[in-house]
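Re: the request from the purification team.
They wanted to know what the chain is likely to look like in 3D before they choose a buffer screen. I agreed to run a prediction and write the result into the notebook, where they can find it.
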Amino acid sequence: MNPYIYVLSVNGLLLFFSILFYIYPPTKINGLYGYRTNKSMQNDDIWNFANGFFNKTLLKYSVISLAAALLLVCISSVEITWQPMVIMLLSLAVSVVKTEQALSQNFDEEGKRKK
C-alpha cells in the first residue's frame, strides 16, 4: 500500500473525526457520542466542559499526528507499517490524559466546580 494513502487513512481519518466532533459537539449526555467517562457523565456542566476541552485537544493533537506521520513517510527509508498507528494512538492517549487532568483541576469528586 502507498504509505501516503496509509497515513491519510489512519491519521487523516482521526483529523476528520476531530473536526466533525469540534463542529458538532454533543449537546446532551448520552452513551453513544462524545467524550464518555464516568466522571464526564456526572452532570451537564462536566459533560459540556469535558467535551469542549477534549474536542479542542483532539483537534490540536490530530493535526500534529498527521503532520508527524507525513514527515515520517517523507524522511523514512524503510517501509512504514505500524508507526502512523502508534502516532495516532499517542495523540488519542494524550488528549484523554489532558482532559482527565483538566476535569480533576476544575471539578471535585461530587461533580461540583472548584473555586
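For the purification team: The helical segments are 3-23, 44-75, 83-106.
Please add any questions underneath this entry.
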